Amino acid sequence: MTGTAKVLAISGGVGGAKLALGLANELEPEALAVLVNTADDFRHLGLQICPDIDTLLYTLSGRSNRSLGWGLEGESWQVMKALEELGGETWFRLGDNDLATHLWRTARLAAGESLSSVTRGLAQRMGVKVGILPMSDDSVSTVVHSDEGDLAFQHYFVRRQCEPQVSGFSFRGIEQASPSSELLQLLDSGQVAAVVICPSNPFVSVDPVLQLPGLWQKIAALQVPVVAVSPILAGQAVKGPAAKMLGELGQEVSAEAVMRHYSTHYPGFIDTFVIDQSDAALADQVADLGVSVAVTDTLMKSLDDKRRLARFVLSRAGH
Amino acid sequence: MTGTAKVLAISGGVGGAKLALGLANELEPEALAVLVNTADDFRHLGLQICPDIDTLLYTLSGRSNRSLGWGLEGESWQVMKALEELGGETWFRLGDNDLATHLWRTARLAAGESLSSVTRGLAQRMGVKVGILPMSDDSVSTVVHSDEGDLAFQHYFVRRQCEPQVSGFSFRGIEQASPSSELLQLLDSGQVAAVVICPSNPFVSVDPVLQLPGLWQKIAALQVPVVAVSPILAGQAVKGPAAKMLGELGQEVSAEAVMRHYSTHYPGFIDTFVIDQSDAALADQVADLGVSVAVTDTLMKSLDDKRRLARFVLSRAGH
User: Which of the residues A54, A219, A237, B314 has an alpha carbon 20 to 30 A from that of A136?
Assistant: First the structure.
């Protein structure tokens, strides 16, 4: 092993970013890299929008809007107001400060920079020292199969407020996509000492990352501890549509069902599954899926909660 | 002739828009169409920006910022501020309200609409009843040949504040571009009863329009009065680099030189050339170029000035 031992955290948006923030507070910046889902990314009003990357950037730079649960603190909305007056598309709310991020990104991408490089540049300018690695520099787009037909992810998630009933998901472009070269370099560096799967949506945040060609197998081959945190506690998702999706897919809405999903698609990949104390009664059933089960309070409200869960996860990952 | 007789005004940005506003105040909306230069248009930060079209839209909707001389009245600048904090490109100042226009346009273009159709949509939403016709739905880009090399127009005009010395201009893409189908339809309709060339920059505003393949010849073939207004008065341009360009191109800086430029490139096209009263002494020399010369006060400060010049021009065009 050369250089600093690193924890690689796999994250979608809000829920994952909370644990990432906890981890960032417990580890030196060079000891953490966050591998972020980009299958929610989309081109909107000419701009390249990367919701999960931005949630990480805004959360880790301490600028996220905690009351809204997305976007930036102290945001203003003049552009949206003017766009609304023009009868433009305003279902995806882009704040004035947030827009600057998208303009900056879109300009750099148009100049030929990779998303990885652009993200590094944004992180640097926002004072985020933790490495934020987009899963791929290639375009991958989540398609939601639903009773209203196939929907682009943000149309399902934001425009239709997750109301359509889902029957499955596919990731357009994933067969042709490669993990980003920065990610592959990290995996080849021998530096990754543990992997954390944050409490993100298994279907639309974690799956697109792990289903990049060869990626989960490559991570598994590192033979380092892989610890996943359930995004479902007491039969509910803290935020987002994970619970609703499980139900619509005909599965039980439980932490166990999440682990079953992971063990079905990525057999043997996860070593330890962290469930909430409210789900302690499920521990034996989850263990029957062939993982160690660790029970703790997984609800992250305060920064203290996030740090405590991060410490717990790190201890289970041998840190 | 079928339908309403129309005046077709050819315009670039600010100077042209002033006379267009005067014309719009003197004519019924359906009796005026403004043919606008699009060779200044560029893609910036992912957005399609059409400075001359927007100047017309903002001026004719009464929303233009008169103190700045560009952009919108009551504009706010939050996005630029945030972009500046990111170290982004802020040399082209995009106000928050102005950005909404560019986002709206870029989204519609991305959805496959033509620039003509998008412009019609914007005009409608801004309450502009006068037809605003982009010269082409194809991309044409002015390249400024200068002592600093070849510069994209906005780099010369805004970023470099017209400081480089020019040696000529070319219009990339013009050979492959067609006049917009709406423009061609109007020219074929038999409705155009007069043509006004607004006091816009001859080199970078009027030339790209008239040099679209076949366009000026097609307009000339209508055999309707063509009246041009000099953008140079008393050896100066009211605004913009027309005077500086004339000097750098080795020409006299005068209304006469402008008319000479027009008669060299578009022989026989212009019937009447309107010069400022301060240039009355040039009248005979200008007339020697083979046009009728009309002398009046061409400086447009107030709306009354614009209306008065519009009436003068219309009377010379047989209205």
Answer: A237
* Bridge partners, B8 (sequence order): B33, B195
Cβ burial of B82 (10 Å; 0-12, 13-18, 19+) is: buried
Residue B88: CB partners within 8 Å, gap ≥ 6? A100, A103, A104, A107, B45
**ipTM, interface predicted TM-score of the complex:** 0.89
Shortest distance between the Cα of A133 and any Cα of chain B, in A, equals 19
Upper half-sphere CA count for residue A287 (Cβ side, 13 Å): 10
Q: Average pLDDT of A204-229?
A: 98
Residue B200 is predicted with a pLDDT of 97
- Write the pLDDT tens digit of every residue in A233-262: 999 988 899 999 999 999 999 999 999 999
Q: Could you give the angle at which helices A96-110 and A51-60 cross, rounded to 10 degrees?
A: 120
- Asked if A45 lies within 8 A of B86 by C-beta distance, the reply is no
Res A1 pLDDT > 50: no
With a CB cutoff of 8 Å and minimum separation 6, the contacts of B218 are: B179, B184, B187
| Structural tokens at position A210 | 């792990």
The closest alpha carbon to B197, from B256, B91, B271, belongs to B271
pLDDT of residue A35: 98
Confidence of residue A70 (pLDDT cuts 50, 70, 90): confident
Cβ pair A107:B45 closer than 8 A: yes
Is residue A2 scored above 90 in pLDDT? Answer: no
CB B28 within 8 A of CB B52: no
Q: How far apart are CA A53 and CA A41, in angstroms?
A: 9
Count CB neighbours of A1 within 10 A.
10
What percent of chain B has pLDDT above 70? Answer: 99
Q: Which residues of B touch A85 (CB under 8 A)?
A: 100, 125
Integer Cα distance of B168 and B204 in angstroms: 10
Domains and CATH numbers, chain B: 6-316 (3.40.50.10680)
pLDDT at B5 over 90: no
Judged by CB atoms closer than 8 Å, whether chains meet at B79 and A48 is answered as no
Q: What one-character-per-residue DSSP string does A63-108 give?
A: -B-TTTSSSBTT---HHHHHHHHTT---SS---HHHHHHHHHHHHH
